[in-house]
């Protein structure tokens, strides 16, 4: 998650949101999904659950990068400060280094709003049941497959959405990924919204129908099921970010999956080598099984030497941002990312941001990250890739845990952006007037 606060107004509920509400699977008590994450004695992460702090006097991208390199996960950015997640030991380290930290309200609670309970959101178990319900309801449009398993053995699924779903056709493919960071539960709701909204509107909505006829869409609702279960299923939020993979030689648990990708991994001060850090990159690229599962799936879509996936969004919270590569360098262009590549990324990104009211910018305009999925998607696979930071804009809206009452509004808010990406996916360079140069054989 990465964020910048702005002053744009809130969009109102749309008709699509009302449809989503009518189709939504009811949320009940959250069932534990086996295998359980049990430990005979408290681990370091259980003893020191992270808190959020405002760090004053951090104003520039360079200063934010320097702070992030200390091991803090930056959640929110203003012109004069940032909000970070840190455990008590890291908070003490930052204060010793001269940073001015102010503790913020507990997870899911602020002066303005709070999530009523983790049951506001689908659990991993109820998410899987919801997917099965949609597949049964729309068997000609949806197909679920297990693409691998998490460290603790939970299924990681991809759901294909297309008008001829049983056939692997020669159509542009688009991938949507969600819940890479455990505490970002609104992104799972985004995945479920996309599946039921597009499936239910096929044959009713002209744009949706055309896209399901002309595209193959893949939705991975949860990349990090172990972390999601750990953060949510105890009945209280734990502010957990990483996966649940132990680290050899350390009592600290977990790797930040979004610093673990094998493109410029650990190159540039945009991740941490400390296992206790929120942004720990792992001992090696793709060391997290969840990273390998998704990377292997993406590579499996190479047919006849050509990558079939042309565009991708990785959904996160919070901040209301549309970001594009690269994250590892402040430069707009770099090896493998030409000016035209950058301009096409920006043109489509800006169009999506106009549709949902988010802010559009290059990832590194916030601070440097390395080993991110967006950089890997473009740098390794030449897939146009975006990171969406969903609602809220700031911690005052609930931070990582906004109330369930906003779910339908905030997922429907991205319908137009999803359609825009789908419509551009056959030739992203059309957005800059260079279709003939890049997209015609």
Automatic annotation (TrEMBL):
Active site (catalytic residues): 389 (proton donor/acceptor)
Any single Gene Ontology cellular-component annotation: extracellular space
Enzyme class: hydrolase
GO biological process, one term: proteolysis
Coiled-coil residue spans: none
The protein's required cofactors: Zn(2+)
Gene3D superfamilies tied to this protein: Zn peptidases
GO MF terms, alphabetically ordered: metallocarboxypeptidase activity; zinc ion binding
Region (Disordered): 34-55
A Pfam family annotated for this UniProt entry: Peptidase_M14
EC assignment: 3.4.17.18
Matching InterPro entries: CARBOXYPEPT_ZN_1, Carboxypeptidase_T, Peptidase_M14
Domain of life: Bacteria
Every Peptidase M14 domain range: 120-425
Reaction(s) catalysed by this chain's protein: Releases a C-terminal residue, which may be hydrophobic or positively charged
Keyword NAD: no
Keyword field: Carboxypeptidase, Hydrolase, Metal-binding, Metalloprotease, Protease, Signal, Zinc
Residues spanning the signal sequence: 1-31
Low complexity bias locations: 34-45
The protein's role, per its UniProt record: Carboxypeptidase that possesses the specificities of both mammalian Cpase A and B. Thus shows broad substrate specificity, being able to cleave Cbz-Gly-Leu, Cbz-Gly-Val, Cbz-Gly-Phe, Cbz-Gly-Lys and Bz-Gly-Arg in vitro.
Similarity field: Belongs to the peptidase M14 family.
Protein name: Zinc carboxypeptidase
Protein source organism: Streptomyces alkaliterrae
Organism lineage string: Bacteria, Bacillati, Actinomycetota, Actinomycetes, Kitasatosporales
């Amino acid at each position: 998650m990465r964020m910048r606060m702005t002053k744009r107004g809130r969009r109102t509920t749309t008709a699509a949101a009302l449809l989503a509400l009518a189709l939504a699977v009811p949320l009940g008590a959250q069932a534990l999904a086996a295998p359980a994450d049990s430990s005979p004695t408290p681990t370091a992460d259980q003893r020191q659950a992270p808190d959020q702090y405002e760090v004053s006097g951090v104003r520039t991208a360079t200063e934010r990068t320097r702070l992030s390199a200390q091991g803090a996960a930056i959640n929110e950015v203003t012109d004069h400060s940032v909000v970070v997640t840190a455990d008590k030991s890291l908070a003490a380290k930052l204060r010793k280094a001269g940073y001015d930290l102010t503790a913020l309200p507990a997870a899911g609670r602020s002066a303005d709003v709070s999530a009523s309970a983790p049951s506001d959101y689908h659990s991993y178990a109820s998410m899987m049941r919801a997917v099965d319900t949609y597949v049964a309801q729309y068997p000609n449009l949806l197909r679920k497959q297990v693409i691998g398993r998490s460290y603790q053995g939970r299924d990681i699924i991809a759901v294909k959405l297309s008008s001829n779903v049983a056939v692997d056709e020669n159509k542009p493919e688009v991938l949507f990924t969600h819940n890479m960071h455990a505490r970002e539960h609104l992104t799972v709701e985004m995945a479920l919204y996309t599946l039921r909204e597009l499936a239910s509107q096929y044959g009713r909505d002209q744009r949706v129908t055309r896209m399901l006829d002309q595209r193959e869409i893949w939705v991975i609702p949860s990349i990090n099921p172990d972390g999601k279960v750990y953060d949510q299923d105890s009945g209280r939020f734990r502010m957990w970010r990483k996966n649940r993979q132990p680290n050899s030689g350390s009592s600290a648990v977990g790797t930040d999956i979004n610093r673990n990708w094998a493109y410029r991994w650990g190159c540039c001060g945009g991740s941490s080598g400390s296992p206790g850090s929120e942004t720990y990159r792992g001992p090696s690229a793709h060391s997290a099984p969840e990273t390998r599962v998704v990377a292997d799936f993406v590579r499996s879509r190479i047919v006849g030497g050509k990558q079939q996936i042309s565009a991708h969004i990785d959904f996160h919270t919070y901040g209301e941002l549309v970001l594009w590569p690269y994250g590892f360098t402040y430069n707009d262009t770099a090896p493998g990312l030409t000016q035209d590549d950058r301009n096409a990324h920006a043109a489509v990104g800006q169009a999506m941001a106009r549709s949902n009211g988010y802010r559009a910018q290059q990832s590194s305009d916030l601070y440097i990250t390395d080993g991110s999925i967006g950089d890997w998607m473009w740098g390794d696979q030449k897939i146009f890739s975006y990171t969406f930071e969903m609602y809220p804009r700031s911690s005052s809206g609930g931070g990582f845990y906004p109330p369930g009452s906003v779910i339908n509004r905030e997922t429907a808010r991205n319908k137009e952006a999803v359609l825009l990406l789908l419509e551009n996916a056959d030739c992203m360079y059309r957005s800059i007037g260079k279709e003939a140069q890049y997209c015609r054989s």
